[in-house]
């Protein structure tokens, strides 16, 4: 597998990394070179299509003068695959190195039925190195925040994982979830730019309805997301329908701007604007948020904001004193939600043996 080393990025550290530009920014930059803005789509295709190139000279449908100008004034920084790990359940985790030297993780999650046929191939992408949100149960949160990823670095993860999917499973990826390292809505500009590239027919070309952005619940940005990309799915990491309990494990809930009282109208705005149900991600912790009272309160909140629930079986993290709920309690919780008419699914652990499961991403090899 090629890591597409970029010789041009070594020749001029003052040049523009055009993979960090949104499509509109790339159009503006191209026009400043005296070229028509539609050249930007051609360049985007070369950078992000099925077989991305590693040099401007390889962009053969561009005039020689433009290729020369790009080589002098621009570079294409790419992530480099540092290591990869494969789980017993065929989940693949990539450890990717940024130009800064920092590492970020991406995961390919195959959904395989009882007949051992692949139903979906989901890419779990990161938006930041580490995370500033500090959720008590999350390994990434223990890292703290280190660096925002550019739009190109976000798309790079999809490109590499897509290549692995084709090699190992003989088919393309089907879904993308922003559920890796970082809080996507804290890197909003790069998030929007990456979503445009991921859904653009001249680039990755995935349907926006197959992409989900997960957030701990930044109310203002949830409203922005509804206006800016209404076809993209939204998942909210909830983990408790009670203010005090959620605040005890999620620092984001301790602010009047992002607690449940502020979050609820933002979520209603999103579902009203987009016409789509949002998903509550709800990690079940033994004897903390898995009681029938929790389930009933969660069901009421779901009805108020038009949400469905994805229950997550907690994945152990060294040094964190939370435990997975029992199967019996899980079943009772599911039944309670179902009795109230809530659509509920259960996410089983994938890639836990390589620390690739939900909440485990922390650059551990």
What is the 3D form? globular
Unreliable spans are 1-12
Rg over CA atoms = 21 Å
Strand content: 15-25%
Number of helices: 12
Order of helices and strands: HEHHHEEEEEEHEHEHEHEHHEHEHE
Rounded mean pLDDT is: 91
End-to-end separation: 20 Å
Q: Percent of residues in helical segments?
A: 25-40%
Describe this structure in words.
The chain has 365 residues and is of the alpha/beta class. Helix content is 36%, strand content 20%. The chain has 12 helices and 14 strands. Strands 3-4-5-6-9-10-11-12-13-14 form a 10-stranded mixed sheet. Helix 2 (23-32) packs across helix 3 (39-48) and helix 6 (151-169) crosses helix 7. The radius of gyration is 21 Å and the shape is globular. The two termini are 20 Å apart.
Provide a quick synopsis of the model.
This protein is α/β, with parallel strands linked by helices and 365 residues long.
Give the topology.
Blueprint (H helix, E strand, L loop, with lengths): L6 H5 L4 E2 L5 H10 L6 H10 L15 H10 E2 L4 E7 L5 E6 L5 E10 L5 E7 L3 E3 L8 H5 L1 E4 L2 H19 L5 E4 L9 H12 L11 E5 L3 H10 L4 E5 L5 H7 L10 H15 L3 E7 L7 H14 L1 E7 L13 H13 L4 E4 L18
Helix pairs in contact: 2-3, 6-7, 8-10, 11-12
């Amino acid at each position: 597998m090629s890591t597409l080393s970029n010789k041009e990025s070594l020749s001029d550290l003052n040049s523009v990394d055009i993979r960090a530009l949104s499509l509109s920014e790339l159009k503006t930059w191209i026009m400043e070179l005296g070229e028509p803005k539609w050249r930007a789509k051609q360049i985007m295709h070369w950078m992000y299509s099925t077989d991305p190139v590693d040099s401007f000279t390889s962009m053969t449908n561009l005039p020689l003068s433009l290729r020369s100008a790009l080589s002098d004034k621009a570079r294409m920084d790419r992530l480099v695959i540092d290591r990869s790990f494969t789980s017993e359940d065929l989940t693949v985790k990539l450890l990717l190195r940024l130009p800064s030297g920092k590492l970020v993780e991406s995961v390919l999650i195959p959904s395989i039925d009882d007949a051992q046929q692949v139903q979906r191939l989901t890419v779990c992408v990161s938006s930041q190195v580490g995370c500033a949100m500090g959720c008590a149960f999350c390994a990434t949160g223990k890292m703290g925040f280190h660096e925002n990823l550019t739009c190109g670095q976000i798309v790079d993860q999809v490109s590499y994982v897509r290549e692995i999917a084709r090699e190992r499973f003989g088919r393309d990826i089907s879904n993308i979830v922003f559920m890796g390292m970082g809080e996507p809505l804290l890197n909003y500009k790069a998030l929007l730019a990456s979503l445009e590239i991921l859904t653009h027919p001249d680039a990755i070309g995935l349907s926006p309805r197959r992409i989900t952005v997960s957030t701990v619940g930044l109310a203002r940005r949830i409203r922005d997301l509804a206006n800016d990309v209404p076809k993209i799915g939204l998942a909210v990491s909830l983990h408790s329908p009670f203010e005090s309990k959620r605040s005890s494990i999620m620092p984001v809930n301790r602010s009047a701007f992002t607690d449940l009282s502020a979050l609820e109208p933002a979520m209603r705005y999103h579902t009203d604007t987009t016409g789509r149900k949002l998903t509550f991600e709800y990690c079940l912790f033994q004897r903390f948020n898995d009681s029938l009272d929790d389930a009933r309160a969660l069901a009421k909140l779901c009805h108020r904001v038009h949400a469905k629930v994805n229950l997550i079986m907690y994945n152990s993290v060294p040094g964190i004193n939370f435990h997975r709920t029992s199967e019996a309690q899980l079943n009772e919780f599911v039944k309670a939600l179902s009795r109230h008419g809530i659509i509920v699914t259960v996410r089983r652990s994938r890639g836990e043996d390589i620390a690739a499961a939900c909440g485990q991403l922390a650059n551990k090899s």
